[in-house]
Input
Amino acid sequence: MDQSAPDLTLRLHQDIHEIDAADWGRLAAGAKNPFISHGFLAALEESGSVGGDSGWYPYHAALRDGAGALLAAAPCYAKAHSYGEYVFDHGWAQALERAGGRYYPKLQIAAPFSPVPGPRLLRAPGVPLSALADALRQAATRMHCSSAHITFCTEAEWRALGEAGWMQRVGVQYHWHNRGYADFDDFLAALASRKRKSVRRERREAAAGLEIRTLRGPELTQRDWQAFYQFYLSTVDRKWGGAYLTDKFFPLLGAYLGEQVVMMLAYRAGKPIAGALNLLGGDALYGRNWGATEDVPFLHFELCYYQAIEFAIAHGLSRVEAGAQGQHKIQRGYLPSQTYSAHWIAHRGLARAVAAFLEQERPAIADEMAMLGEQSPYRAEAAAD
Output
C-alpha cells in the first residue's frame, strides 16, 4: 500500500523481510532498543505469534524518498482487538460501538506484547517526526481504520506528536536506577534497614536448595527454550490469559538477538524449574517474561528483580525496566516512572470524549506517581544522592 507526499512515499509492508534489515537497523541503531529491532519483529512473524488468527496483522511503515532510500520506518499492525498492548482502550471501543460505529480495525504502532518504552517512529537525521506521523494518519484513513495508536513511545516523540495534533496519554511503570553501586550489597546499603533485611530474607528463602544461573543467548540450548516455554505457559494459565507467543518464538529470538538475550534460570537437582527472560539494550536490561513449574516463595522476586539488579550492576547498566504493573516492585527498589502514548481517532465525537478523559487522567496519574513515590524503600539521604 502506497501513500505519497511531495518527494516522499509511504509503503506499508505485510512482511518485515520486505524491508532490508540493514536499512531498518541504520534507523534503529541510535535507540539500542531490542524491541524495535528487525530481528525481534522477524521472530514474531516467523513464529506465527503475529499474523494468522492472532489479531495482529503486520503493516510496517517505510517512508522513502524519490530515489528509494529509506528515510523513516515504524513497526505497525492492523489490530482486530485491543489485547497484548498494555495501554487500555477497551472503553473507547465500547463507546464507539454503542454509538453505532466500528472501532476495529485500528492501526497500532508498537512492539507487540511488550510494554517497553522506546522509540516508535524511526527516522534518519533531518527527517521531521511530523512527516511520518502525518503519513501514518493518512494511511490509517485509507485502510479504513478507526484510529492510530503509538504506544510506549519516548517522551520526545510524545511531545512532538502532541504538537502535531495527536492526543497524549501517560501511564506508570516501575524501573530500577543504578546510582553507581559497586555490588548488590552496596545497593542494599541504600535501603532503609527494615527493607534491607526483608530483601535479604527473601533472597535466602528463594535460593534455598536451588542453583541459579544467568545464561546469555548462545549458551541457551533447545532444552532450555523448551523449559522456558512451559514456564511461560504456566504464567499464562495462572493469569487466565492467552498465550500470545508460540513455542517457536523464543528460540528464534535467541537466534536473532544472540547476546542480547539474558535468562535467569533456577534449577533443582539439575532440572530447570523457573526462569525469567530479559533483553539487553544499550544501557538497560528489560524484563519480559517469567514463569515456574514449581511454587517457591519469593523466587519470582529473585529471578525477575534481584538477579536483574545484580546483572545491571555487574555490567554497568543505568537501569532495569521490569515491565508493566506491580506496586510490589517499589519495595524492591523499582520506583515509579512515567510512560507515554499518543492517539489519533477519526470519529470527531469520540475524539472529543477521549481528549476530555485524557485531560482528567493525566493529573490523576501525576497524583498516583507522587503517592507511590512516598513508598520508596530508600533511606532519605540515599534517595537524595
